[in-house]
Amino acid sequence: MKLLQAEDRSIFQMMKSCLGRIAITSTALLLASCGDKEKAVTQGEQTNALVITAIPDEKVSDQEVNYKALQEYLAKELDIEVIFSISSSYDAAVERFKNGEVHLAWFGGYTGVQARAAVPGARAIAQGDVDPKYKSYMIANKNTGLTKSDDFPSGIKDLVFSFGSKSSTSGRLMPTYFILKETGMMPEKFFTKPVQFQTVGGHDATARAVAGGSVDVGVLSYKKYDSMVASGEIKAEDAPIIWVTPDYADYNLTVHPALEEMFGKGFIDKLQKVLVDCPDKGVLKAFNRDDLIPASNDDFGGIAEVAKELGMMR
User: Fold this and answer.
1) What is 46-132+250-309's CATH superfamily?
2) String of b and e for 39-49 (b: at least 16 CB within 10 Å)?
3) Torsion (CA) 295, 297, 301, 306 in degrees, nearest 10
4) Do the Cβ atoms of 296 and 252 come closer than 8 Å?
5) Model-level pTM?
6) Closest C-alpha among 258, 224, 261 to residue 99
7) What is the pLDDT of residues 55-111, one digit of tens each?
């Protein structure tokens, strides 16, 4: 019995020793692995790559697919590494641009103005061919019985109304301005029921909310509405257009001045030319545009004035 106990202790000690060595080896491997990952992250941060982002005005899952062709086009034409990095919200896209985490951003008119005001030397370099004269659609659920009119539909004041994102130009800023001009009141005063905002999703969320009846009336980008109807994502009869806003300037590609330090003086002008001269509709799908045209900061002065008038910007 004693012999058996001694053997047991011997076996136990041998197993303990082996397990100890395994644990030490595993820990070493884990630390080495973590070190490699940290090293890889550090090396990635040091890589001179042009990082692109965009405001999430559509489903984020669609953005990564749509921007792949743009990545490949710019990488080939400029002979640099190009990365597309999703931003979780409108505000996040602006903040990341301010911090220099991203260098080229597809902004709305309002977010573009915010970003450029925060980063001296930032430039709007391109916009879609339709963007100098953009507009918003006000749409209503079919059960409201509302139809399209040239006059502002003042009868909507007792209905449940929804904007899109709070930082959206076509889904909030400019519609707010036009409601104020048409009624003499800010939306929260004009509507008798609390004004809603779409906090998850882009303009497509507004369209679906109206078509589905969770809100009575909403306002969104005309381009997104038209594309959703064309693709069958919503039916026009479920959420008919009841009013179209006057025109205003909207979307733009804005660049961070750090690109001149990263890739040399004159790089931003070169980037602008490559974008504006792009003939590939697959690349332009990233922006849902047929063509890009040159843009400048002055093109969006009106947006800045509206934002200041509404108290949404200093």
Assistant:
1) Periplasmic binding protein-like II (3.40.190.10)
2) eeeeeeeeeeb
3) 100
4) no
5) 0.82
6) 258
7) 997 767 678 889 999 999 999 999 999 999 999 999 999 999 999 999 999 999 999
Q: Boundaries of CATH 3.40.190.10 in the chain?
A: 46-132+250-309, 135-244
Cα(91)–Cα(114) distance, integer angstroms: 10
Select 135-244's CATH number: 3.40.190.10, 1.10.580.10, 1.20.200.10, 3.40.50.300. Answer: 3.40.190.10
Q: What is the spatial distance between Cα 50 and Cα 29, in angstroms, rounded to a whole number?
A: 34
Longest dimension (CA), the chain: 102
Q: Is the dihedral of CA 117, 182, 295, 274 positive or negative?
A: positive
Edge to edge, what strands does the sheet with 196-197 contain? 196-197, 161-163, 217-221, 136-140, 241-244
